[in-house]
Every structure is written in C-alpha cells, then in structure tokens.
Queue: 4 jobs
Job 1
Amino acid sequence: MCREALKTHFNFQSFRPGQEAIIQAVLRGENTLAVLPTGGGKSLCFQLPALLRPGLTLVVSPLIALMKDQVDALSQNGIPATFINSSLGRTEMRRRLANLGRHRLVYIAPERFKSEWFRSALLRTDVSLFVVDEAHCISMWGHDFRPDYLQLRAVLGFLGHPQVVACTATATSEVREDIARQLGLSDPTVIVRGFARENLTLAVRRTGTHSDKLLHTLQLLRDYPTGIVYCATRANVVRVAGKLKCEGVGCIAYHGGMDDQERKRAQELFIHGEVPVAVATNAFGMGIDRPDLRTVIHWDVPGSIEAYYQEAGRAGRDGQPARCELLFNHADVRTQEFFIQESDPKTTERDRNRLRHLLAYVHSRSCRHRTILRYFDDPAGEKMQGCDRCDNCLRKAGARTEAHRPPTPEEREEINKVLTGISRLNGRFGRTRICQTLCGSRDQQVLRFRLDKNPVYATLNNRPQRYVLKLIDALLDEDCIQVKGDEYPTLQLTPCGYSVLSGKEFITLPWPAPPPAQKTKQPDAPSAPTPTVDTRLVDALRSMRTRLARERKVPAYQILHNKTIEEIARNAPRDQASLLAIKGIGPVKLADIGDQILEVLLKTLA
C-alpha cells in the first residue's frame, strides 16, 4: 500500500533510508520522533501517512518559505494542502480557516496558536496527526531554539492529544530526550537513520588568507558550478559575493540585514535556477530544496557539527555526486567565540562544547562520514570502518594528485627545519606562531615569548610565511604533525614525524609551489550527459520547464527534475504510455503536463 501510494502521489519508485520504518510507525498510530539528515526526505514521512489515514494533518513549521514550497509541490501532485501564516491577509486567513476540512495537510506557523480565534477554528476540525517540523527548535539544547515552540505541549492538550510526529535533521541524544520531554511524549518511537550521504564527499581544507580561500572557492565552483557559500557574518557575505562577481561568478547575496523584498528576490533567483551560486549566512537554506546543488562551501567555520551537516546536506539532494568543503583558518574561530560570548549565559557552556566537537572534527584524521554518523547516534556508524568519500580516507587509501612528489635535497632540508622547530617548541604553540618563529617574524607575541632566542628562530627566513604555512599543512595531512587541543590547538610531532626527521622514513608531499601542471579533474565532478542524450530535447524541455515555473510561480524542479528531463531526452517517448514509463513521471504529472511534454518532443524531433 505504501509503495503504491509513493509511486501514485509522489512519482518515486523507492524509499530512502529510514523513511519506510518511520511511515510504518506513524501508520501504526505511534508517537514518533524521526531524525533524518537534510536531504533525507523527512517531509514524505508525514505527507504520505496523511493520505493513507482519515482526518487532518496539522504541520507546525517555523519557515514561511518552506510552507509555500511544500504546499506548491503537494498541489502539483494533486494533493489538497494549504498554509496559514503571517504572509496572508486577514480575509484570506479567515477563508482558509473556514475551509480547513477540505485539505489533507495544513501548514501553520507556531505563533498562530497565540490567537484564541485561531484555536477555536481548530476545534471545529478533526486533527488526527500533529506534526512538529524542525522539532529541535523546541529544545534549549537545540542549535536553533524558538520560544514559540514551547507552547506546543499545551496546544496538544487543547486538541485532545492527537498522535504526534516530531521531525528534525539535527538532534543528538540529549536534544532528542528534551524534544520528547517538551512535547509530553512518554515513550515515543525514536528512529535515527539516513545520515550516511553516500553521494557527498566531505573535506576540510586549511587556508592561510582570504586570498587562499577565494582561489580555492573559484576552483571548486569551476568544477562544481552550482552551490552555496556559507559565511559567518553579513560583512563576509557582502565581501565574498562581491569578489566572486568580479571573477565572473553569477551569485546572489543573502543575509539578515537585507530587507524582506531583497531577500525574497535573491531567494527566488537562486531557487528557480536563474543564478547558480548563493553566498549567504546560516539564515539561508532552511526549506531550500534545490536538488542540483553540486557543492556547499563553508568560507568560515560554523558553530557546531549540527549546523555544519545541516548546511552541507543541502548539496546533492538529487543523489548525484557533490562536494562539501570547509575552508579552515583558526583565526576564524574567534568569530564563533564572539557569538558565544554574546549569547544567553544559560547556553554558553553548551555552545562551547559544540564548538569543541566541531573543531575536533576539523582536526580529526579519522573517516569524516563515520565521525558524523557516530555524533548523531546513527547505528550505521558502528558498522562503518571507512569510506572513499572524505579527504581523510582518500589520503589514507593513497589517493594522490600530480602535485605529490618526493622532495628535492633542498626541500628535504626545509621539511627537517619545520619538524625540528615543532619539536623544539615542545607542543606549546600553534600553527601561526610556529610559522612566525621559523620565518624570523618580529611579531609582538613572538618577542613576548622570547621565541627569537630559540635556536630554530629564522631558520626559514628565506621563505614567505604563506609558503611555510602551506608546508606545515601538507605535513599535517601526511600525519607527520598532529593537533592537540580544540579551543587553543597546538602542534606536536607524530611517530611518523619523528621517523621522517631521523631519516628512517621518506614521504611525498603536495608542494606549496608546484611546477605548472594541467588542471586535474576532481574525482566526483558531475559527468556531462551521455552521448545518447539529445541535447536539443534537453534545451527545449528546460525552456518549457522555465516557462511553466514562472507562470505558476514555483521552483523549476517542481515541474521536472533534471534527471527526468535527461531520461525523457534519452528515450524520446512518443505517447502517454511511453512517457509514463519514465522515472519521475507519475499519473498526476502525466495528467498535468504530459501533453505539453509530448508537444515539445514532437516539435523538436520534427
């Protein structure tokens, strides 16, 4: 029954990890706490049960843009749904309240429950399923606490305690327990699944300056041309977006300092595919369901693993390969420390602990996917030993670029000077201070600690600091150096580093100033359409999709996904029966735009 409804109403052939188990629990009538990552398909876990059971499904969501997108998508599939939030005028809101019974799903903002008029209207309906989306917002321990969510327990009592489904993308065991407690759920069914995103390559890249970040960002956007660049501050959003535009990258800027109209316009340009890149603060992305994002770049370090993985998970929602890269400079950590200092004192300890976990992830040499799974208590993490989809595992497997080569005698001497410097400084200093010491800097902190009197001082004064920093990073990546501590990390030699220093072991490195070489293709770069795809049909179908999306004021992917367009172009169906066999075309989609698709095919192939 579930799989048939999945195909009929949503045009999907199979469930994603965890979805079917959650749906079955809901259909059994159990209060359910579902934790699936961004892109894991949480919405389907309550939308499909809403169609298979009587009564109204009420969905509480803090995101006005998400409500509209989901209602538009449901309506496209012939499913009666609506939303009620502050974007509506009083007359329209009264009309929708009077017609609640005509819908299967109604999305509402939590602040609506403050209105006695609104609560009275709800009493006249049969609310059989109460969904709390973004459920981490109810917990003080969640990364995005919203006070309006605290009234939901009282609302459940007011409605006669209907069945509850709480959904979130990011909740540790501590947060899950608090969600259940705040909603008054004594023994909910808890399902944590799907955090293994097999199409995402996770990586951390150490960067020295903003110029380094810009060069690497441009490289990533050449290989993965659609994506989001996340910045920690509004000022960085403006600065980065400006630099990317100067380099010819089509992008929008999005941050909380823009007025509502500016933000709406920027968001629409990005969602509809008219601009390939968004540069944004973390205010952007919740509810954004653009499936073709090939990269998510964190220009600044985020404040927690929860925030990082929720944002990174917006890449590759179409299942195709995507790359998520965090550009790390320890100086950027001060921004997050400032945010913590300025936050509610009740949450300071929690936020510092989260930042420590994030920094441990940055410095870790273990499998990044396994680290993420274990952090969120996904059972798959216990079985996982490694992957071929993160920088750490690829390095350990011997993956090398053309830049890796043995050192020359002069470069060998430079390696020894760096390793000797770290050894002589005795694990007391971090990357920047060690570099300054080796390069002979007269920085005040170098002089304060009398590092200018150390025998290793100025032993690399013939090299610029940027070069030495990159050499230190390369030795970190080769496990010759290890980072100790999270909040104030220092460098120490590993056993491998001591072996290299003593001449017992030899290594190859990606040298900071390699000889000119042809650009190598990233291993996960999305491949071009196969030769069997008729590019004329692809262009014609995309034009039709853009026209319909503008007419209906919905994102282009709600009309047709890229993969569906390519499959249509590959098979060139000539009748409705053949078109229905295309993955992504179900009965509702066929009835809606099937004739228009066939007309495009007929004209293009004539």
Job 2
Amino acid sequence: MIINHLKIILGFILGLFCCSVYGQMQYLNNDDNALHLIERYQHLYKADSVRHTSFKNIRRHDVKRILNESHNWAISSHDDFNRSHVDNTLYFSNDIFVNAQKGLWNTFYKNKAHLFEVNNSDFKLTINPILNVQFGRDSKSESTVFLNMRGLELWGEIDQNLYFYSSFFEHQSSFFNYINPFIDKYKSIPGQGNYKPFNSKLFNSENSFDYANTQAYLGFKITKHSHLELGHGRHFIGNGMRSLLLSDFANNYFYLKLGFRIWKIQYQTIFAELNNGSSRSTLGDVLLPKKYMATHYLSFKVSPKLEFGFFESVVFSREDHFEFQYLNPVILYRTVEFSLDSPDNVLIGFNANWQALPKTSFYVQLILDEFRTSELFSGNGWWGNKLGYQIGMKYFDLFDIKTLDLQLEYNSVRPYTYSHNQTSETFPDLSTSSYSHNNQPLAHPLGANFSEVIFKLRYHPVSKFVIIARYLHSRIGKDINSNFGSDILITNTLRESNFNNQLHQGAKSNISHIDVSLSYELFQNLFIDGFIKMRTDKNVVLGDTNTSFIGTGFRYNINNKQIDY
C-alpha cells in the first residue's frame, strides 16, 4: 500500500516536470471525452491558471498536467473513472498511471488504448486503427443513411523537440435529405475534400459518395514556450459549439502556425492556403484557383476564471504570389490592407470566457467584417454593417445531478458577413476572398443572415454509458433568384439592396432539429451507438424538408461527430 502511494507521488512529480519542460505538443483532436472531463475539472474542482480555454485543440501535456494534479483532489467516482480512462489514452504501457498488460504476441495492446507503441527517451510513437460504421433509415425520405469509415492514426515525437501527427480516413457514405442539396449546390461534402459517386449494393443506395480525408502536422519546439508547426488540418477558436471566428466545419487546409504561451498570454498566427471553389466544380484535371489566409489570435488570461481573446484574419487572392506584407506575425492587418488600397477581406473579432459562478461559465464572441458607426445606429439597414455575435453558457451537474451537464448557446450573423467582392474568370459569380475554403464556410455552417439557438445536455449515468441530447432552432433567410446575404460565396456586388437590409431577409426558413445519441463502451475506445434524429425545415418559398431518422452503429478510437446544421 505504501509502495503504491509512493509510486503515485513519484509519478505526479515526474509528470509535472516532464510537462513543464518537455511536454508533448500533440493535440487530442478526436477525444471529446478528454476535453469534456477537463472542462468539468475546471468548473467543479479547480480552475486552471495555465490552459487557455478558447483553443479547442487541447494539448496532450495540458491534459496530463491537469489529471496529475487531480490525484490530490476529492473527485466523484464518475470523474475518477473517466480520469483513469483518459490516462490510458495519454500514457504509454510503461508509465506509472497505466495498468500494463502482456498484450497480443507481447507486442500489440500492451496498453489497451494503443495498438502499437514505442516509448523511449528519444523517440515516442503510437499507432491506432480507426473505425466508424453507422446505418439507419430516414422514414421521411424512405432512404437508407449509412457511413463506412476506416482509417489509421499515428503520433509521436523525436528528441523531445520534434512532434508529429498523421491520420488517413477512407469513407463510403450517404447523407440526410437536407445535406444532399448542399452537396449538389456547392459540389462539396461538409468537412471533406474531393469525392466521387458510389453505388452501395449492401444498402441499396445509388446516391452515395466515396471520399478520403487526411490530416497531418509536423512541429518543432523552438523554445520552452514557443513552437512552429507545418500541417494540413483545421482549427477552432472559441468556447462554444459553434465559432464565429474560425471553426473546424470546412475541409482541412495547408497551414503554417507559429505560437507561444508564456505568463498569462497565449498567441498563435496561422498562414494558410485555401481553395477557391471545389474540385468537383471544375471539369477535368484543372488546378483550383488559390486564395490565402493569415490569422492572429491573442488570448489573455486575467485570472484562472476570466479570459479574453482578440482575433483578426485576412483572406486574399493573388494571381501569381502570396502577399508577403501579411507575413508579419504581429502587425495589424487592417493597417496593411489600407496601405494596399483595401483590396482584401479583413475580419476582426473578440472572444471572452468567464467562470462567474461555481459550476457555471459564460462566453461571448463578436465578429466584425465591416461597419460604419454612422450607419450602425441609423436604422437604415446598410448592407455593409457586416457583423455577428455569440452568447453562451455552460452549467455542470445540473440540479445537483452528477454528470448532467448543460450548454446553451445563441448565434446571430447579419446578411453579407464573411462575403467579399473580388472575383476570378474561373468562377465569375463567386468571390475569391470570401471567408471560405473548398466552398465551405470557415466560421458558422449556415454562413450568414441567420439566428440560432442550441440547447445541449450530456449525461453520464453509469461508467460506460453516455447520453447526449441536442435541440437546435434556426431562422435563416435563404437566397433565391437574388443575393439576400446568406450565401457567403457569392460576390456581394450582386447584393439585392444597399439599404433596408434586415436579418432573415429572403426566403425565410424555420429549422427545428432534435437529435439524441446513446453510446455504450464495450471495451477501451470501442463504442456501440444509437441515434434518433428529427428535423423540420419550413420554407414557404422553397418548400418544406422533413427528416426522421433512427439508426445504430459502432466506432473505435474516434468521436461521434454529427453534421447538425
């Protein structure tokens, strides 16, 4: 007993030392359970003075540090179970917090969370397979909806300074009746890249797709507090279920990221190459026109419970070169844009998170694309008042019921926000500088000209069983035979009017969306899922679209992520 306690204390000290000096920089991209557990610890036990909560891709060493500290806290049995579960994902079989086993052929699954691993002082590697199979029936459209996804994920580090991550996923799937019109219109699958038609004999589905998705990054720790990262992926800034600044809705893109965290500040700048249009929009082997993005985000942690963030981003297209003036990682982009005679799409934003009460936090976001103070309060509905905002709250252990957690969020974005006026010969009706990639928004999935309420409950009644229920209600003014400001891809010079623009203008849709997912963990990271979804989209002009779905599935080493707009 004494020896076991000494092992825990020694592991705690070593864990803190390693995390502070050599900590692993990889992110837990696909582990929503770990992120949710850390948020519970933040609200219920001890506010973290180090991690900045608006960076959604949480670093592995941050999770390690917080979980190591939690061994000194009096936590609930549910949180203790989840901690031991996440420990297996974070650590290697020869680490102190993992119950090592002989494994298969004394090589595989020595740690039940990892297929194969290497843990030496100068080299670390983990390899895991990915599997996600779902299928069910949409009774409203009388179609089968399915997903067949397989993949491989690996991550590691070399010499404690170089870190890497890579994943590859292959899909065959069909989609709900409200997603198919998006694919038909934009020649793009939400969150994915190029695709080809696929006929499923198993599910008797002709309107299906075959597509692949890859993500990878290679990073170097420049100093103890700074790093440089080159990758192909996506990012998320904010504390909400949505982000009006930068979200992970769009497909992966090539990026170079410079970041540091020191004192009460965390900063990152991202330079990215984006696609103007989608691969399916062109005929034959034609290289897509490129556009570029440069983004700064500075977060200041006033106290462990209060955090502010300041955001700016510019999207621009050049026929033959990158605009090198935007390479300065600390300059204000608005001043550069002005010196270039204002040819580009610059956005500025604000993010804040405040743990105001025990168990409760509030968060806000503000995005400003363009506005004039004189017109903002005039009531004239000037089209150039392009802005949006988000208000949300999180409450943990609702009604004192352990693991019953609530999140409530409201989003609103005015017409024409994120759009721009530059065009190209390849896509003359589309803006080359809109805040998008591969015909997909870089912020909110609905684009602009909408308001939305989201209500989410998460309940973990027993150790291996999780229930997540969501209700979404959206009002959006869709574009029909004219540009009313919903479609951010269309050049805003084709706008309907300069004045008298109002939220929800155009063909109004009232969307109600309810979904419930039930997940039971059979073994470490192997889940069996059940789904219920009901969605109505009432539009007098375009007609109604109704969805009613019941399905099931199983997945291994991946989150249960839904397309829910």
Job 3
Amino acid sequence: MADLRFDSPAPRFTDVPRPRRAEGQWAFGYREPLNKNEESKKNDDPLNVRDRILHIYSKRGFDSIDPADLRGRFRWMGLYTQRRPGIDGGRTGALEEEELDDRYFMLRVRTDGKLLSPDAVRALGQIGVDFARDTADVTDRQNIQYHWIEVENVPAIWERLDAVGLHSTEACGDSPRPFLGSPVAGVAADEIIDGSAALAEIERRFIGDKAFSNLPRKFKTALTGHPSHDVSPETNDVSFVGTVHPEHGPGFDLWVGGGLATNPMLAQKMGVWIPLDEVADAWSGVASIFRDYGYRRLRSRARLKFLVADWGIEKFREVLENEYLGRPLVSNPSPPSPVGHRDHIGVHPQKDGRFYVGIAPTVGRVSGSLLVRLADLLDQHGVTGARLTPYQKIVLIGVDGDAVEPLLADLDEIGLSARPSGWRRNAMACTGIEFCKLAIVDTKQRAADLVAELERRFPDLDALVPGGITINVNGCPNACARTQVADIGLKGQLVTHEGRQVEGFQVHLGGATGLNANFGRKLRAHKVTSAALDDYVTDVVTAYLADRKDDESFADWVARADEELLRGEARERLDQRQLEGALA
C-alpha cells in the first residue's frame, strides 16, 4: 500500500486515465494551488490554528485574528463567523465576506454517533447558557450548534467538551466532517450490526490527522447497522450500510458519491461485504482517493460525487482495492432499501428489555437551558443517555419500563414531546438568515410557524397519512436541510411579488430516500413567497388528500399529479365536496 501521509508525494496510478484538462488532482502531480482555498491550505495546515486560538487569539481578542485564519482555517476547529445582524437576503451574494462577518462565531460540536451521558448533555447545555446566549440547535449532522461565541471563551468551551469526551475538531472545513451514526446502535431489537466501534476507530485514527486535513472539500460520512437506513446513506460521500453475507454473517456494504446542493447525486452502491474491523481501513481508502484524485481546481466540482460520476462505481472499486487496500473486497448484493426512513420518534423496545424514546424538538431548535433540563430528567428517571439524530431529533437510550410514562409526561412539560404531531415530527430547517452568511431567507422561525399553522389546519393528518409528510426548509441552494429528498422541500430565494423582491422559496415536491429514492420534482418558474407559504402547503396537501388513490404516498402522488395541483391551484380544479371529504 502506498505511503499516504499528507507531506508525501501523491501516488501515481497508471490504470486511471490522465484527465484532458487539469483538475488540480494530486495523483497526477498537480500540486500547485489553483484557487485561494487551496493556497491557504498549502501555506499552513489548518489544524495548526488550534494553538493560535489557544495561545494568541483568545488572549488578544477578535481584532488580532489573521484573516486567513478567521475566514478559512477556523473552520477546521468548528468555528464560522456568524452573519452580522441587519443584512437582508438581497445582499447575501453582493457583499464581501468581511462585510457579512459579525464579531461572534457559530460553533459546531461533533458527536459522531456517540451515546451522550447525562453529564455530557448537561455540559452541552451549560455551554449554551454560559457562553452562547442560551442558544443550541440540534443539526442534521448530529451536531450541537451554538451562536454568539466569543473567541476569548473558546478555550474554556473546549475544556468542558474534553471533560465529557467531545470536541469540535474538523467539524467544518475541507476535512472529514462529523459522522452520522445510527441513533439506536447497540440497543435496537431489529439491528443487523452495531457499528459504533467502527465509528470510534475512524475518529481515533483519522480525525486530527494531517494526512486527511487537506481534502478537496468537505467529506461526509454515515454508518448504520439498522435496517431502516436511519442515517440518509444515499446523500453522503461515504456510507457503510448494514448487510448480511450468507457465509460471513453481518457486515457493511459501501456506498460512495452521494451529495445534494446545486448538483444533487445519490450515492452509488458498491455491493460488497466489509467486516466491522475493516471498516476504518475502507474509510481511509475512500478518503485517500478523494484526497489524491478529487478535483481541486473549481470549488463547485470539488466533491467526491463528481469523481464517482466520472469514473463509475466499478473503476472506483478497482482503484480502492488495488492501490489503497491492497486486497479485493468480498462481493455481496446490496441490502434492500426500506420504504421511508425511521426517525425513532416515540417509545420502542430495546433488545435488553428496556426502552428507547425518540423526542422531537421543533426543527432542531432547543436551547442551552433546555438541554440542562433534559439532563436533569435523564438523571431523575435513570436514563442511560441520549443520541442526536440525522433528522434534528434526540433519542433517549436505556429507559426502564416503569419510568416510561413518568418520563413522557415530564418531556411534554418541557416541550420535547415523544408524541408530536406528524408535522412537528417530519420538519427540518437549516440555520437560515438569522446567523448564516450564505442564507437568503429566514428558515427556523418560518418553519416553526408553518408547523404550528399546519397542526391547526390539519389536526387529524396523522390518522389520514400514517407516515406523515416531510417538510425540509433551507435558506440557500446548499441543501443543508436536504430539501431535494423531502416530500416538500423549500429552497430559500428572493421572489418578485408586486414589483418588489421578498423572501420566498423554490419548491421541490416528492423527494425521497429509501426504496423510492429520488429528487423532488421542480415546477418550471414556480416560486412561493414566504408570506403565502401556509396557504400554498395547505392547498397542495388538500389536493393530495382529495386526489390520491387508496393509500398512495405523497411522493407517488406527486409523480403522477397534474402540474396545476402541485402549483396550489386545487381549489380551482377540485370540487369543493371532494376537498371537504378529504379533510373529514
């Protein structure tokens, strides 16, 4: 196997055709940086910024920070400057980054599928209370995300995280971003295999390793041994998905090249069987291919999905086996895809006789004080711990049978219900214009208001549509909230209304992961203003309920529905009695 250290020459693979146009691929000798991001990483490994934060910037303050660190290398420590208040969405793309910068930071804390003890949950909450103006969000990367962080307080925050086994290293940047792990790993009664040890090994060996701190762009990892595929494996750069080999038993298939944003692609399935103790090696091989062959010339093409699309899965497997692993992988049919994805909300039996309980903060928004109260409940009811989910939810692990009902009642009291409406259960939203420098529209509050209004207008939807209807709200085209794979995906943009630009959304309808994985249907020239969103969603859902056939899913209905129904024109098309019957 080739020497894959960061500072060694990249391997040259003769069986891979040399590109006609230089893409900045290290494997072909293109080491000279082709854009300012690559130049910054070459000038100084981003991981080195940790010491400068600890010993210089936290002592001298915001004005002492080198701009190359502030808007570049800080990301490898999970830190982004947040959006300066008062800048509307129309100026997001028009201003330079330094004009958008506030003097405060967003901080992401990675959990990597870990089971968080009550002490860890309390520490996360207290950080929010003490250093982040009581903010804390659960993200769809299983992070806790804070706002209003001052650089002077970062060392103290890191100390508190270290004390409970957490950190923010490479939570952002062109690096191995936080891992997604099954929220019910090790406890679910129907689990195929527990992959927790593999995620821990990848973190131990490779996070903070300079061999992988200069990737072409972000690199997202997911792993699950649960048959519901509860980590959205189709949308990650590399995913390990539980499978069973007829002779070797449980292991993992390998999927590569998933990603969303403006050029969405679903991961390609390799159809292999990898044992638990070889997952970390396989991860290293995939990450190394990305590092050495990934396109570095244009940031817009610097994701692994473009390389996989160009090579094809067979070539990718060949290079992985021959040049990185040094051995063939065992072939095995990819596991069947489930219908939909389990979010683990509600009460479920564990294989040890206890229970796990999934709870639903609305669009991931919690607070530091709320996490502290949650930690108190975990201690009070003898709960083992908690995991965050890839759907902005929380799963409580290890609840005794006689503690379930008292716990549920106390969770309802603090607004973290394990019995939420389908609307609340199935909604996600990114950070939005409140704090994000890339956003164009408000998302968190707008999504929460939409959920509340839909609960009022469709109080019985759970009985009519048992699986519910997913709504994902994003503030820009980057799809952090996975808009393209939601039943109703809303991508923020400015919309012209009555001669002026207002906040609005491009609509994606009928997206899905799982058995019928696909990207949502976009309607030509169709936009919805934020102010009209409640009525638009109401009209589309009403049309679905009136026009569907038997138990037809929302996604299946969207695939065949007339465009005028999808544009929210149901009341002009359907008889009023049909509409009333659908809602009865």
Job 4
Amino acid sequence: MKIGRWIPRFSLIGLARVGIGVLVVLMFIAHEAEWVPLRFVTQMELNAYDTRVRLFMPNLPAKKVVILDIDEKSLAAEGRWPWSRDKLAKMVHELFETYQIKVVGFDVAFPEADNSSGLINLEALGKGELRDTPGYQAFLERSRKSLDYDALFAEQVSKYPVVLGFFLGDKAADKAGVLPAPVLNLEALPPTAYKHFNAKGYSGNIKILQEAATVAGHLYPALDQDGTTRRVPMFMRYGEGYYEAMALAVTRTFLLNVPIEVNNEVKSGVGFIKNLQLGSISIPLDDSMTALVPFRGARDVFKYVSATDVIRGTYPKDELKGKIVIVGTSAQGLLDLRATPVREDFPGVEIHANLIEGFLDKSMKHRPFEVLGISVLTLFLIGIPFAVLMPRLSAVVGTVVMVVLCGAVVAFNFYQWQSNNYVLPLAPPLMMMLLLYFINMAWGFFSEARSRRLITGLFGTYVPKELVAEMSKNPGEYSMRGETREMTVLFSDVRDFTSISEGLTAEQLKDMMNAYLTAMTEEVQSHRGTIDKYIGDAIMAFWGAPLPDNEHARHALETALAMQKKIRDLDESFIKRGWPILHIGVGLNCGPMNVGDMGSAFRRAYTVLGDAVNLAARLEGLTKQYGAKILVSGNIVSSVDGYVYREMDKVRVKGKTEGVSIYEPLGRASEIGDTLMKEIDQWHKALDLYRKQRFEDSKDVIKPLAYANPETKLYKLYLERIIHFRTNPPPPNWDGVFTFTTK
C-alpha cells in the first residue's frame, strides 16, 4: 500500500485555504492556552455556560436552606431598617429556641455601634449635669443592661451558631469594624504564585459582635467580564491571610465547625487549591479559588419567611426545625440584586443559599484542572484534520461533517456536565468549527461565483447568460452526456459572401463580420437559443438544450424573423462605414435530434446531429433557389400557430427519398394585411393547380402575381417550370415533388 495515495493533494490556492484554516485553529489554541486571550470567545463561552445552567438546573425546592426575609411586611411591622439590635437579639433567640434551627447566617454586616436606645445620651448626662444627682448612677447601671443593644445582640449571638457577614473591597481607605481571624495564612499554602482575589479594604463588624460570632464570612461575589455573577471566591486575601466566604463559613458551622483541609496542586510553578475537604464533602475550586454557583432555579426554589413572623412567633413552629437560615431582604430600597445566568435581577442572598445547598448535596459544577490540556488537545485533534480536509469536501458532505462533529462535541460536553459535574469549554470548539466551515463555504462560494463568471464569459458567447445563470442554480440537473431530444435547429448564411469578402480588406472584413455576428447572436440569445458554432459567415443555433424548452420551435421562428429585421437595421451603419449591405437566408426545422458533447480526443463541442439537423441545413441552401429569406419545414408549421406561411414547394433534398413540404413564414397573422393575404390565397390556388398538372390554369393564376410582384423569384421559378413541362410533361403518377441533386 502506498501511503501517498491517502494524503490529500492541493493546488497553491488549496494550500492557502488550508493555511488559513490552520491559522484559525492555532488562534483558538492560543486563546485556550491563555497565551492570547480573545475577549469575544471568552464571552461566548460565558454565554454557553449560562445556557447549560438554564437548561439543566433542577428547579427543585431547596431542602436545607431557608431565607429569613426582611420584607415590606416586616418593615411595616417592626419599623424601618436598620432595626435596633435588641430586636435582632430577639430574632436570633426565637430562631434557635422556638424554631430550633441549626445555623443562621447574616447577609449583612454591622460595622457601627447601635445607639438607638439612647444609652449614650444617658451616659453623657451621667458624666455631666446629672453626675452628682442622687441615685442617677445606680439607675444608669441598672438601665445599661437593657439599653446596650449591641451587648444584648452579642449575648444572643454568642449562645448559638451564628455566622456574620463582612465586606472586602478594593479601596484601601475603607476600614470599618474588625475582621475575624483568617482561616488560612500564607504559611498554610506553598510559596507559589497563587491566583486569588486580593482585597485592599474592608467593612467588618464591631468588635463585640465579631468576638461573639461563631465565625464570619465575606459577602463578595466575583463578577465576570460582562458583570454577571457566576462564581464566588471561597478565599479572598487581605493582608497576610485568606478569609472564607459566607457560604463556606455557614456550611462549616452546620457541619459542627469541621476544619478545612486544603488540597494543593502545583503545576509549572503555579500553585492551586484544587479542592477543599469538609469531612466527607469535597468542594472543587478553579485556579482563582472560586466555586461556581450551582443555581437550582430562577424563582421559588427557596422558602422565604417574613422576619416579623419569627420575631413575633407567629410562624408555624415545625417549619424551620433543623434548617439553615440566611437573613436577607426583599424590601424595595434594601434589595441586593445581582445579574446571574438565570435572572438579571437575582436576589444576592440566594447566591449564598445556592452555594450552601450545592455544598451539602454535592452538586457543585467545576472546571477540572486538566481542562486546559483537554481543551487544547480537543481543538488540535478536531481543528487540524477539519482544516485540512474541509477544502476537499463538497458543500453537502462538509455540512454533514460539521453538523456531526458539533453534535458530538455538544453531546460529550452535556454528558460530562450531567454525569461528572464537569464544566468543559463548549464555545471555543464550536466557534472554531463554525468559523472553519464558513470560511470554506465562503471561499467555495466566491470561487464558484468566480468560476461562474468565467463560465458565463466563455459560454455566454454561445449560450444566453440568463440560461447559464439558470443552469448554475442547479448544476447537478444538467450534463453534457449524449441524449435524444425534440429540438429546433437554425442555419443562416450571408448571400454572395465570397464576392463581398473580395471587395474588403482583411481588417474591414473582420470588423464587418464581428458586427454582423454580434447582432445576430444577440437575437438568438434573446430568444433563449444556443449558438452551436460559427462556420465562416454561417451561424448554427439550436433550441431545447441544454435547458429544456417546450416552445423551442416558436422561439426559433421568432429568432429567424428578428434576424431578418435586424439585418436591415444594420444597413445605415454599414453604409456609413463603407461596408456592403448584407442579405441572409435562414433555414429552420424541428424534430428529434442527438445533442451532447461530441468530437475527438483533441477537440470537442456541445452540438446537435441527426436527419432533422441536416434538413435545416438543406432548407437554408434552398432559400437561394426560391428567393426566400426564411424557409421552414412542415414540422415548424404544425408546431407554431398564429403565423402566416406561404407554401413554397414539396422537395426531395439530397440524401432523402421522401418529399418534404417547405414554407416561407411571412409574419404573425395579426400583422399581415388583406392585400398580402389575397396574394397568398391566389398563390396556394396556383400551386394546387400545378400539382394537379393543370399547368395552363396554374400559369393563368401565377402571371398576374408575377406582374404585380416582379421581385418575387418564386413566381418566375414556377413559370419556368410550367414552360419546361409543356415540352417535357411529367408522368401521370407524378407526386409534385421537385428533386434537388445538390446541397
């Protein structure tokens, strides 16, 4: 076996086409390898991710997390936000003692002290004008416990598993409250170039609350380049430590403060936290220490409980037992809305809720750390063969291959999403294949258009351009194979061309023939005819191929009449240029003909052959004998009605044994005047008498016609024949056919 036979061979243009395809593949590989990031491709991948999220999210009610909602109802009942912290203390107490929840997390921070009780004013009076008032200091000490709302809130927070929130930001000047201790420090991670979200400022909680809380988590959602929240940093760095996210802090607290086990990975000198281990729960992270939010649904997934119902104890007691509660808000003016893959106005509190549910039910989607290698290898293995082979494929096969490959990539991607929770790149391979496909289709289209223009320019001198355009729409329907069709063929010839050519220079003859042939060709093509060939001054054309034409005989006859009119239109310009006036004879016949690509190994042509073709050539030659401009066969007369024909004779041409009736078409019936119609009627009467051998009676009818129309050669011809038959009468069984022994 020769290996070379399986290697595609390309022309220089084909190699250029392949080269462009390979460059496209390399461009996508460079993007996936993060050498040359392409923002548009990144955005398309984000859109593809969003589509998969919406397509596969379960839309099932959450089992473990409930939203405690500071809603309009709560604001109306408890007053405007922020509430005094004694009220929050009561709320925490009710949640744990009355409703027996497991954990509560606050999607808010408390960076400032609560002075709404007036205690600060009482203390100021105790230090001022009421300092020496008997009993005031004792009263102040008794009141301090009930009026120190921060202490009341801190006391309740310290009793139960409560997770507070805090904000990390980019402004170094923002430093309010205090931060909790970091969950990871720099020594806990290898000294490698970790990617992470780095904060410069913070807004934490006041010290008394932070020290009372079980733990605290940051409330920072990561924003992708389009401003959409799809992931949350599980760790953010501030100073010398890493701080955990609210969702992670709540989950750890729910799991009884299970410690974080970090699974580090180092590749090419870059460190990653591949995943976190919380007991039996593994939380996969990407290379920026973020986790994808496992959106469960767009709406009505999490139960919302009005905060005032809990504070007042009116909510059913068993509804919240054992639940994780996240305190958030849906009230106008307080609502924290985020753009997400599932909604443009997604409540921020539900981002934490979705993460917690995802952690606990182990449904976290993630990009495997091997994804870069997988993606680059996928692009290479699909793209290079696709780029090399696509130029060799037809449009149909190329489309099928592209659709099958795209379908396979999508199916594999969806399978990995559902079965293994893998988020593999989808947009880059699809975009690469589509771009390669459209480049090749566009290349093929423009190449075909160029070829079509070349074909039209070449064959348009023979076949009407509108027919070439019509054929090019469905090229598969047409071929040059030989076949038999009912068609019409036309032959035309210039009278006395030899003597004309002798009176002109070679340059003049060339210019005159070009002008003449151009004008005649225009008439042929304007009536859907195909030029077969030019034979010196003669023209051969046919109708009915390569495009079928049910009106081929009519179109050919209209062409013959138009050519006779056109030749007279040329007279004035010919005279001005010193050229002689031309006269032409035209012969037409229709019938079965063989049409196709015929010729030798050296030269071929798309032409017609057959007896019907030969008869048309003979008819053109007979126009000289009868002084007619156009001669047609009886087949034309029977095929094309609406015209007036003068029967000329019944002849036996060379090579034929049977007689053929020949006619001269004079024009449309509606355009023929009464005088000419009377002349034709008289002529047909004379012809009938002639064929009945009543020569003297025929002569009596013809002589007035010849006298009135001295230019009509036909009448003189028959008068000469009658004189001949006077001395040489035909046999009694004479059929009236005149035999020609020459072409």
